[in-house]
Amino acid sequence: MTAEQTKILRTVPREKAFYFFTSIGNYTGVSAASLKEFVEKINEVNMKSLEFHLHRGDFVKWLDEVLEDAWLAEEIRKLRRINLAGESLRNQLYATVSRQLKRLTGQSGALPI
Amino acid sequence: MESGTLRLKSNGFPLDAIDMGILEALQTDARQTYMSIGKQLGIAHSTVYDRIKRMEQYGIIKKYTAIIDAEKTGKGRIMAVMTVFTDPKESERVAEKLCEAPQVLEVYSSLSEELQIIAKVVAESQESLHDFIANSVAPLHGVLRIRTSMVTKKFKEIPLSILNDPEG
């Protein structure tokens, strides 16, 4: 595993974790401190939370600035432009993030360029 | 206990009718003179001075402050009431942490079905309010979830007073 992969897959301290909110100031109690946790939580968190954060660009910001996965951040940015909502948003988000996780952990295919 | 005397549980300091009258006068206008308060209560201004000094020493009068109308200051501020549901083992620590934040004006704990900490929070914008809650409150150990309501209009605000009788 490269240093880059290790960095992206690390568990960050709780103050750097992603906290899922459904609206301004309304925290769901669900958080993710690593990419692996992030994928898991995408599947279980309230749909409103996914829509809230995607629309605000919070996922892109966290992936880019905290996990430092610029490639995945860009992929999520593309999803944001499509204006997805509801289950299709959850499915697309899950598919995109889990694909990257599998690539980074060497479970499938080559790493994205 | 003597009639007309209130003995405070916290420090055992007895308050009589004169003390209560002085406190009531100060709560109406803390800038009025000892002479003015004395006239209202029919006592010498020196008595008013002595009583006030004694109540300051005992911490019954904690401080004198100004009530500011934030809207008229022209500072765009929003206020919110934040309810933080906590793990009972961590609630005290969460409350203490909230007290340290300059954005938090008041902190209370409440026990209904779950242990909650209720806090009044101010921020310059919705975005800064969210940043504060997301970056400084949600990550605290023991925070289970948070509900926040933005205050849109204030109908009443008075300082808490031991003199106010809710039954009128």
Question: Helical element count of chain A?
Answer: 6
- Broad shape of chain B: elongated
Write down the overall mean pLDDT of chain A.
92
Mean pLDDT of chain B: 86
| Number of domain units of chain B | 2
Provide the low-confidence segments of chain A as ranges: none
Shape of chain A: globular
Strand order of the largest sheet of chain A: 1-2
Overall domain count of chain A = 1
Order of helices and strands of chain B: EEHHHEHEEHE
Distance from first to last alpha carbon of chain B: 23 Å
At CATH level 2, the architecture of the largest domain in chain B is 2-Layer Sandwich
How would you sum up the major sheet of chain A?
2 strands, antiparallel
Q: What's the count of strands of chain A? A: 2
Distance N to C terminus of chain A: 16 Å
Structural features, described:
The complex is a heterodimer of chains A (113) and B (168). Chain A contains six helices and two strands; from the N terminus they run αββααααα. Chain A is mainly alpha-helical. Chain A has one domain. In chain A, strands 1-2 form a two-stranded antiparallel sheet. In chain A, helix 2 packs antiparallel against helix 6 (86-104), helix 3 packs across helix 6 and helix 4 (58-65) runs antiparallel to helix 5. The radius of gyration of chain A is 13 Å and the shape is globular. In chain B, helix 1 (17-28) packs across helix 2, helix 1 (17-28) crosses helix 3 (45-57) and helix 2 crosses helix 3 (45-57). Chain B has five helices and six strands, in the order E-E-H-H-H-E-H-E-E-H-E. The model of chain B has no long low-confidence stretch (mean pLDDT 86). Chain B is of the alpha+beta class and 168 residues long. In chain B, the strands form two sheets. A four-stranded antiparallel sheet of chain B has the order 4-5-3-6. Chain B has a two-stranded antiparallel sheet with strand order 1-2. The chains are: A mainly alpha (113), B alpha+beta (168). Chain A binds chain B through residues 14-15, 17, 19, 21, 24-29, 31, and chain B through 80, 82, 85, 126, 129-130, 133-135, 137-139, 141, 143-148, 150.
